Amino acid sequence: MEQPSISGKVRVRFAPSPTGQVHVGNARTALFNWLFARQQGGTFILRIEDTDLDRSEARYETQLIEDLKWLGLDWDEGPDVGGPYPPYRQSDKWQVYQDYAERLVSEGKAYRCFCTQEELERQREEALQQHLQPNYPGTCRNLAPEEVERRRAAGEPCAIRLKIPERPIRFHDMVRGWVEFSNEVVSDLIIIRSTGVPVYNYVVVIDDAEMKITHVIRGDDHLSNTPKQVALYEALGWEVPEFAHLSTILGPDKERLSKRHGATSLANFRDMGVLPEALMNYMALLGWAPTGGDREIFSPIELVEEFDLTRVTPSSAVFDFEKLYWLNRHYIKVGVPERIAEIAEPFCLRALGIDKPTSDVRTWLAHVTAALASSVNKLDELPERAASIFHFDPAAAIAAPENAEVLNTTSARAVVYIFVAKILAESEPISADRFKSLIKEVQKETKIKGPALFHPIRILLTGAQSGPEFDKLVPLMEEGSRLELPKPILSVKQRVVAFEALQS
């Protein structure tokens, strides 16, 4: 069978429901639509599917637009930018959906169904008991027009159902090839509920057709919806678009990715200090294989150039947080320092209890970020990485059993005695080079080197035996000590003094 042809310029859409945050799976769908549109020189459309009136909220629509823009996506048509096929919110098209439903009824392709919820449930249970597909049995499919009008006139509520053709339904999927569903597993679907509210499988077809969507790229959880939608296209006499159903994203335990696995939304990752370019790069590799070997780092421009929808795999993709963090470290390292500092700043301000930073504080935090950010997985880890600068508790440092074991050795006492004396003798702020010279002097006088030399000094200044290099720490301590902060940053000499006061 020939692959169906799609006429005209590529037009794709991302159509989220404003009922919560944008999940990684939906974000990947948006990304693949965006990449395909940009790679094909087509049109990318944002449409808001808000027919679920009870759960849809304006705040979620606002957030999803902000999150998609943060990720780096833009759209050519949408509720915020307009376009040639408005409206771009389903809630603004109620009458359109009703008109098409009435047309289908008048053409004999749909019918009014008066079955109550109790009747439908009883029919379903009977089918299951007989080991049959629990489809709607067509109770109201052949009601006489006179009976329909009599029951409507009596005020009896009714839904509108589409007549599913009595033949298999086939469609082409760019990921899976040709897919066929037997009509025995596809029930006559409700398109308008008895409350007058249209259902998803109906409105999505109307919207896609009116917006001239050529390719429907979405998650494979919609695969079972597709035959119903194809039946609607055919009933309305419209060309069926190409479909591409993307594989499910799994957590590390091979179960569907959910909140129990940790962060799952764009907002979560943004709040963790994951850079949008890292997340975009990683999500593009979930279920899609680029050409040219094992390359894994792609800029947005390179992704657009490389993206090929035919290379999307039907196999489920496993979300590897460590792989994402590896990419994030890369983008932190190569990022523009001023931008990385701006993103990292709020995390540090919260850790320091600062609401309104001065320009000097912001400059210092930029220096902290430049020195330490390359060693964190995500920028919300920066305050912990900088904890030895931000907070100093000599009493806790001395009391820690692992530190006491080091400090109570003869060699450590010798190192601390000479090091303290040299620091106290300094009259000027201590530079990284001067600090290095002082360490060499301590080593020369004590004949002690390696961990036996550095661990006692590090405990004395930071409270821990490991951490960032001294040539990074010392300048930040000295610079920070000159700032007015809610809790002062101690200089090298102030730390030595505090340590000595406890020792004596």
Low-pLDDT segments, ≥5 res: 1-6
**Largest beta sheet, briefly?**
3 strands, antiparallel
CATH fold category name of the domain at 390-503:
Arc Repressor Mutant, subunit A
Q: Which value, in Å, is the CA radius of gyration?
A: 32 Å
Distance between the termini: 90 Å
Q: How many helices does DSSP assign?
A: 22
The helix content is 40-55%
User: What does the overall shape look like?
Assistant: elongated
Strand content: 5-15%
Structure summary, number of beta strands: 11
**What strand order characterises the main sheet?**
3-4-7
Protein structure class: mainly alpha
Highest CATH level, the class of the domain at 390-503: Mainly Alpha
Looking at the overall shape, the CATH architecture of the domain at 390-503 is: Orthogonal Bundle
**Can you give the mean pLDDT?**
93
Structure description:
There is one protein chain. With 504 residues, the chain is mainly alpha-helical. Among the domains are: 259-334, Glutamyl-tRNA Synthetase, domain 2 (Orthogonal Bundle); 336-385, Glutamate-tRNA synthetase, class I, anticodon-binding domain 1 (Helicase, Ruva Protein, domain 3, Orthogonal Bundle); 390-503, Arc Repressor Mutant, subunit A (Orthogonal Bundle). It contains 22 helices and eleven strands. The protein has helices at 24-40, 58-71, 94-106, 117-129, 145-153, 200-210, 226-236, 266-272, 276-284, 300-306, 321-334, 337-352, 359-372, 382-385, 387-390, 394-399, 401-407, 410-425, 432-446, 451-462, 470-480, 492-503; strands at residues 11-14, 43-46, 110-113, 159-162, 169-173, 177-181, 190-192, 215-219, 242-246, 249-250, 317-318. The strands form five sheets. It has a three-stranded antiparallel sheet with strand order 3-4-7. Helix 7 links the parallel strand 8 (215-219) and strand 9. Helix 12 crosses helix 13. The longest helix has 17 residues, at 24-40. It starts with 10 loop residues before the first strand and ends with a helix.
